[in-house]
# Entry
Amino acid sequence: GGGGAIGGGGDAHGVLLAAPASLAGGERVFLSEGQFNIGGTIVIPDGKGIIGAGKSKTTIKLQDAGSRALTSDWWRTNPTTQAIMVTEFTDNATRTAYQSKDMEMRGFTIVGNTDVVLPGSACLIGLFVTSCADTVVSDVDVNDINWFTPAAVDPTQGLGIITRYCNNVDVIRCNPKRAQYECLGMFDNSNNT
# Structure
């Protein structure tokens, strides 16, 4: 499918957060080389995706604490989980069902909170692939997700790339680093992943 291109890097908060939702089904957002600074959660809608110029060329960087407001998503028993990028699931009550499919995330690096640790019992996830089917994540790195000295983060958590309630999800050539709890995890009914 086609899609839209975003170039130039820099402060891409509003543009990048809105772009996936504006696509037609099957289309992708294409990111040029550069760093894209975001302050909110990027939601990948059903049948859509984000493709960068390569994980060494396109970086999606979480802004510092004073400039960010991430969406809270449910993660097991922790309702204060925040994700930098998440696949769309619209009904939290039926989160175990496949609510979206045919999504693609490829060719970029996500860099998390390098300024301050998330407070309290919060959990930060770099790329949260949840409640979906027939989805591909390839050539994506996720780095520095709540990665600080162990004494500073307890009891917070950081998860790099994780899958949950998925079927037929491919995670290919991804090398997440420096996540406080798990860099790469296939959790809770990740079937054929």
Q: What stands out?
A: DSSP finds two helices and 15 strands in the chain. The longest strand covers residues 123-145.
